[in-house]
Amino acid sequence: MKLLKSLATAVVFALPFAGPAAADLSDILEAGVVKIGVPESFPPFGSLNEEGEHVGYDVDVAMLIAEDLGVEVEIIPIVSKQRIPFLETDKLDLVISTLGANPERAKSIWFSAAYAPFYTGAFGKDALEVESIDDLAGLKIGLTGGTIEDIQVTEEAPEGTEILRFGDNAATQAAYVAGQVDAIITSNVVAAALSEANPGLDLSTKYISKYGASFIGVEKGEVDLLQWVNVWIMHKKLNGTLNDISLKWLGQPLPELPTF
Amino acid sequence: MKDILVTLLGKPEGIILFQLIEASQFTIYLSLIAFTGGAIFGGILTLLRILPNKASQRGATAFVWLFQSTPLLMLLFLTGLGAPRFLGLDIRPWTAAVISLTLHSSAFMADVWRGALESVPTGQWEAARAVGLSFFRSVQKVIMPQALRAALAPTVSFMVQIIKGTSLAYIIGFHDLMAIGKRWANATVAGSEPFIIFPIMALIYFTLCYPLTLWSRHLERRLGTSPKTLIVTTA
Amino acid sequence: MDLRFFEIYRSSEYLGLLGQGVATSAGLTIAGGVIGFTLGILLAVTRFERIKVLGLVAAGYVDFIRNTPLVVQMFFVAFGLPTLLCYQWPFWAHALLALSLNFSAYFSEIIWAGLKSVDPNQSEAANALGLPRYVVLWRVLLPQAMGKMFPSLSAQFIFLFLTTGIISEISVKDLTYAGVFIDSRTFRSFEVFLTLTVLYILVSLLFKTALAKLEQVSMHWKFVR
């Protein structure tokens, strides 16, 4: 009897969590909610503010998408290495989290058009003499695992570079602030936000290696959803909304973005 | 609730505490469900082990060994990321966490049950059979009540292990106390530094676990414990 | 549903990472185990001898560590303490510290139970012989306690080894880290984590054998026929 009661309780507890993530456009519209992955702690793209709310460039984009879809949005903060696995395993419908596109990733997921700029580079102490990736030899470099810069730097860094891969962006930044690494590889606006958050921090731009962009990640095969997202991006580019978001969070107008 | 905390502690701290406590409910739900599942499966495994059937005994023992030797983190990765990718199934973090923790708990609970059963004097079995009870009736009426008494303390103390185990589920996207706490610790908001957040989280976990530890010790004193389970499950 | 293990095994880079991961995981666990064991003895003795305030502090410490998750302890040690006390260590050092502190609590609990279970007559006899207390502890009580508790201690050690995978979250290049890295490059999660599981099981079996050997060698007096 007690066993039955426990089982019943278990089922009751499990019920509120029933219902898988539906990546199909019509499923999303029917379910009335879209699950979007955003950066957990990567200001200005996504982070917690004083009110305990999630805010940022990617978060704004996510909320606008939900608004235009006419559904509720479930903002799911995730870390870099979770983006593609969670999208692939249906834990998310969309990934709007400074996702870069490369052929390897394109084997597993689909990318929308670019919606935001994302320039990565190396940032380190003023005294450091680093002009390009080849000067990184002998230095300790911090970066976040599971990102495009992770793949790029791992491939191109010279012998003797010590690469420390962290579980998420916050750890990478904390490591730099604590002096655990000589330089970090990250986005230029993120470095700017980091400087702002830590006044007096010895952080200067060494070089910008990649003029890239962020794309919205869609699960492979979801044609309707991908089409819709691309139309949305084009629409928001044309009517200036994306430009407004860029001004708000990056302090600069939306630059020319790469197209397929 | 949120407003009380905010007025008491000020802006980020009040909100942080509220969100942490709110997220703890998922930790508790997961723990309870994993515990129930683990106890049930553990019981089934034990039954399989005492049945006079070689195959079922070997199978159950192998299962117990396997899931005691597999790190919980690996189970979470396999059910949360591996199986979904491999089978193309949609396994949500919640489900994956429940499955992992239940499998993990059942292996250890099986040992707890076995120790408890073995602590019942063999004379009881013989006496029950001598009085004419069948195998199942002996188990049900004579052995089980005594075994349950011996199993109680280690079972309660294993619950502590389960609660601590839930702290790994954040890696596969489970939004519980650990996930929310880590998110705050990562946030650049003043007042949410790691050296503030993590001690608070430790305190919350402690508040959940310590009463169980104390209760388990109390039970040990009153009901005695089976000596074989002194190892890892005693909190 | 296609299984492709070869992608992992064909690449020598990945195999190398896995090998390095095994070495790091095992190494850090052993180091943590040794430090934790030493600390554990100190804590256990402090409690057993009921040394005024220290005994209570030790008991409180042990209870606190055993009732909070390793993850939280690890993150605090790696990110909270350094900021608070202004020091910088490489991440494996943070991991080692966290593991040592964690292990010490579990070991001390077992050792303490072991000390309590030694026949009190032993203690009385030793005292009657006029032996100083530290000799009584070191030569009479602890060896017997160890003898009784060795199986529990080694089982606990292996159990704790299985929990060390979490140090990958603070960028320590252990076995789990290697797996996560390979997964992020090949997207073959199932194969990768299955391989990791097998490796963890193999290493724990190795530990089990080694510890059994250790028991035979160091406590030959237990095996006298």
Describe the structure.
The complex is a heterotrimer of chains A (260), B (235) and C (225). Chain A is 37% helix and 27% strand. Chain A has 260 residues and is an alpha/beta fold. Chain A has two domains: 21-118 and 213-250, D-Maltodextrin-Binding Protein, domain 2; 119-211, D-Maltodextrin-Binding Protein, domain 2, CATH 3.40.190.10. In chain A, the strands form two sheets. In chain A, strands 4-1-5-10-6-9-7-8 form an eight-stranded mixed beta sheet, sandwiched between helices. In chain A, strand 2 (47-48) and strand 3 (54-55) form a beta hairpin. Chain B has one domain: Orthogonal Bundle (MetI-like fold), CATH 1.10.3720. The longest helix of chain B has 40 residues, at 11-50. Chain B has helices at residues 2-9, 11-50, 54-69, 72-87, 93-119, 122-130, 135-165, 177-186, 194-223. In chain B, helix 7 packs antiparallel against helix 9. The mean pLDDT of chain C is 88. Chain C has one domain (6-219): MetI-like fold (Orthogonal Bundle), CATH 1.10.3720. In chain C, helix 7 packs antiparallel against helix 9. Chain C contains nine helices and no strands.
Question: What is the secondary structure topology, with strand pairs?
Answer:
The complex is a heterotrimer of chains A (260), B (235) and C (225).
Chain A: H1 2-14, H2 25-31, E1 33-39, E2 47-48, E3 54-55, H3 57-69, E4 72-78, H4 83-88, E5 94-99, H5 103-106, E6 109-124, E7 140-144, H6 148-156, E8 162-166, H7 169-177, E9 183-187, H8 188-197, E10 204-219, H9 223-238, H10 241-250
Chain B: H1 2-9, H2 11-50, H3 54-69, H4 72-87, H5 93-119, H6 122-130, H7 135-165, H8 177-186, H9 194-223
Helix pairs in contact in B: 1-2, 2-3, 2-5, 2-7, 2-8, 2-9, 3-5, 4-5, 5-7, 6-7, 7-9, 8-9
Chain C: H1 6-10, H2 12-48, H3 52-66, H4 70-85, H5 91-117, H6 120-128, H7 133-163, H8 175-186, H9 189-218
Helix pairs in contact in C: 2-3, 2-5, 2-7, 2-8, 3-5, 4-5, 5-7, 6-7, 7-9, 8-9
